[in-house]
Specification:
The complex is a heterodimer of chains A (107) and B (181). Chain A has three helices and no strands. The radius of gyration of chain A is 18 Å and the shape is elongated. Chain B has 181 residues and is mostly helical. Chain B contains six helices and no strands. The chains are: A mainly alpha (107), B mainly alpha (181). The interface between A and B is large, with 81 and 102 residues.
Chain lengths: 107, 181
């Protein structure tokens, strides 16, 4: 039974859920901005796996999910570029990428 | 679709070896993800992220999508991971300070949140009876190309504009404050 797992929708959904959980864990525990960005990439990967799994097993048109995964990749690339440039700007301002050092707006 | 109704192939048949490769890909994905979220240094974290993305590309290949698997490696491993590495080099985090896992949510609270979410989604996925519909095409690269330029052409153009604006915005934000130095 273990070796036939790859032909089963639930396997892929559980993998996606595990990646999502790992990403959430990273995003709430990391203290640096880059670490949080890496965890956010894991969350996006988990959701993409979900889309691709439904695309393969249940959707009538198997192109839709692939196109959606490609758009997720494009938006994730844009998000990484913007996020990293913000991190560079924050580093230039505070000489640190720790989330607890950027506290100018803290009341 | 119920796992208990699928007969297990023999280990040294073609299907059995494919199953072994799939389990290796899943292990690579999950181990890479754990390294990405738990290592003390950001460079190791990026290395774990790359390992994880290679595993995800393998999983896409198992989902009948070699094109998306190739794009995953090209875009994530080739572009996003390299960009993050550059940011780590430019914003060199101080080595003395612990940059690993600390903070109020680091202990059981953060783990509990993540475990609750992952476990909840996994139980939902396992207990729902997903309806299966007949395929109307084969999902090949040719079909993806046709649909990208017909049904999804508007989204395709919009994503191009979003990427262009993101690149320009990244340049503007990262350049800000450099004149005085």
């Amino acid at each position: 039974m273990t070796l036939a797992l790859y032909n089963n929708l639930a396997t892929y959904l559980v993998i996606g859920a595990l990646l999502f959980g790992i990403g959430i864990y990273g995003i709430v525990t990391r203290r640096t901005l880059i670490g949080m960005l890496i965890a956010a990439e894991l969350i996006l990967a988990g959701s993409s796996i979900n889309f691709m799994a439904f695309n393969r097993f249940t959707a009538p048109d198997p192109v839709t999910g692939q196109v959606f995964a490609l758009f997720i990749m494009a938006v994730a690339a844009a998000e990484a570029a913007i996020g990293l440039s913000i991190i560079i700007a924050v580093y230039r301002q505070f000489k640190s990428i720790d989330t607890e050092d950027a506290v100018q707006l803290k009341g | 679709m119920n796992p208990s109704t699928i007969a297990s192939p023999a280990l040294f048949s073609v299907d059995g070896l494919v199953g072994v490769v799939f389990l290796i890909m899943v292990a690579i994905t999950l181990i890479g993800g754990l390294i990405a979220c738990n290592s003390d240094r950001l460079v190791r974290s990026v290395a774990g992220l790359i390992v994880c993305f290679v595993g995800v590309a393998g999983i896409y290949y198992f989902l009948n999508s070699p094109f998306v698997a190739m794009m995953q490696i090209l875009i994530y491993v080739g572009a996003v991971a390299v960009t993050i590495s550059f940011a780590i080099m430019l914003a060199a985090p101080e080595e003395k300070k612990k940059i690993g896992i600390t903070g109020p949510l680091a202990g059981p609270l953060g783990f509990g949140t993540a475990a609750l979410l992952a476990g909840g989604f996994a139980v939902l996925a396992l207990q729902t009876d997903w309806p299966v519909q007949a395929k109307i095409n084969d999902g090949s690269v040719k079909q993806i190309g046709i649909q990208l330029l017909t049904d999804y052409s508007m989204v395709f153009e919009l994503v191009s504009i979003v990427l262009l604006i993101a690149i320009l915005g990244a340049l503007v934000i990262a350049r800000d404050g450099r004149e005085g130095q």
